[in-house]
TrEMBL record:
Necessary cofactors: pyridoxal 5'-phosphate
Modified residues (N6-(pyridoxal phosphate)lysine): K295
Protein name as annotated: Aspartate aminotransferase family protein
Keyword Transferase listed: yes
Amino acid sequence: MSPRPGSYDPALSRAAEHARRWLDALDARPVPAQAAADGLLAQVGGALPEVGLPPDEVVDRLADLADPGLMAIGSGRFFGWVMGGVLPAALAADWLVSAWDQNAGMRPATPAAAALEEAAAGWLLDALGLPATAGVGFTTGATMANFTCLAAGRGRVLQAAGWDVHRDGLAGVPRVHVLVGAERHDTVDLTLRYLGLGAPTPVAADEQGRIRVDALAAALAEVPAGAPTLVCLQAGNVHSGAFDPFADAVEVAHRHGAWVHVDGAFGLWAAACPEFADRIRGLAAADSWATDAHKTLNVPYDCGIAVVADDLALRAALGVHASYLVREDAGPGNPYERVPELSRRARGIPVWAALRSLGRSGLVELVSGLAAAARSIAAGLGEVDGVEVLHEVAFTQVCFAVRGAGNTAGTDRTVEIGRALAADGGILLSGSRWHERDVLRISVSNWSTGPDEVAAAVAAVRRAVGSVGGSPGVEAAGRSGPDGDRLVGQPVVERRAL
Ligand SMILES: *Cc1c(COP(=O)(O)O)cnc(C)c1O
């Protein structure tokens, strides 16, 4: 039985109304969630009700119940972790993806999804200067993109050592040596666990967090000649935004026959901007690259992208067939051959919509705008008494600490200032530890962060510094800043460590 025309109208109209209300309020609401999960669970849970509700009532109830527990990731004043906002075209496309409900695994069965994803992949390879014939898979995020790329790499380096891991598995396999920068993202280690490769060998990084090429060369020299080897580099260190020295690192690794993978969850997008040409030099010579669309590209959750120069290596590793069945003449293949899943949503379609709405020039503006905002924030923070920006601002990340002890005996001032910022709620940033010290970290990843939000970030930090062991004069200056009025008087959220 087909649904009657109009069956979806009440629920969809309510959803569109609630979505609009949420998006329009982002500019004014506190950035952190105002309620904790336990309290919310008491309201949304309990025993499964015996009798159902009409769809539009479900949507109304859902929106009301969720609201206090929503974090305003889409706000231009959100600087936490590395999380992107949502471009309008990408959000609307994502709604259509749900409405169309295509299972995007099979090219002949769902041709619109396949064509749009292939087009998005082509645009992406072009914009990022990666090989036009590379295989591209749309994954849930960079973690699974790292997994996907390293699965392809594991297959190829073992094949070169005479071992078909896809047929014979890992029992008795020659050791795969995996070398990673000391400051790689933790998810790289996680994906190596998925792949049965164990813990990697860390290679020393410099003060900006970049892998040291001399240390990489020394580590490779320890690997027996011809042994299967993977080297993981990084485009965009989460603390400093720094880029590994690709040209030299890739060359050294390739000289040893290693497969070179680049985790560029947010930093790969620097390759779209001529201004970062010196930072990404040599990047395109790697063998695989992982990135996220839900960070820098501002596509809704979830979407990561795996790119593998050797498309057949990718399809051999992740296709639902034995590796020996994938041949050169196999044609374009199916989307399911390039991601871990068989069935999945067409998450490449919002990427198509984002890129189509931006165009090449808009993409350059988006990425360079995020980096410019990060530089402005760093410059502003540098003028706040006691604040120390801890690195060169290479891209979209700003990591800083605040000199001096906190008000509470034994508490680092930086940690207390982080708590004060969380309580203020005007901006949201992350606390972390870097180079054995407590730090605060700002990530500029949202298309809607502009000059007002940059000023709000600096003013919020100034105010927090003033409130924790600072002079009253500093606090007063912060409150009279350009965005002071909007931030003062917002509800105070519960204090919590970030
Ligand atoms: C965010 C991030 C990841 C993990 O990405 P997910 O999309 O959360 O899976 C991996 N590497 C780096 C450098 C990141 O910033």
